[in-house]
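Holo model, magnesium ion. Inputs:
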Amino acid sequence: MNTNRLDLIADHAIQYFGTRNQKIKAIEELSELIQALAKEISFRPPGSHEDSFKYTGFNTMEEIADCIVILHQLRFIYGPHKIDDLIEFKIDRLEKRMKDVTHTDKGNK
Ligand SMILES: [Mg+2]
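Output:
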């Protein structure tokens, strides 16, 4: 993924379409991803055959891509540095949680 191009296009898209329209677009794209994931889960219960997964799996990947593109635009709308700081905080917190779980599991064995 070319993040420089993604950032450049995100900035241009906000200028071209406007922040309000891109926020509405984000709502649409995030809703589509929610629907795709829900369909995928309902069509592919645990242990089901891989063939039933192909169509909804591709649809989910498309919606993930749409969301990444629009989320980059939201990042610019709300301030890339603020969002990047929050991402770092969330990643650190996630890493800490996984370490804590690993230590807890080791403690239980
Ligand atoms: Mg979409």
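The pocket of magnesium ion is lined by residues 29, 32, 63, 66 (CB under 6 Å). The mean pLDDT is 88.
Archived with the compound record.
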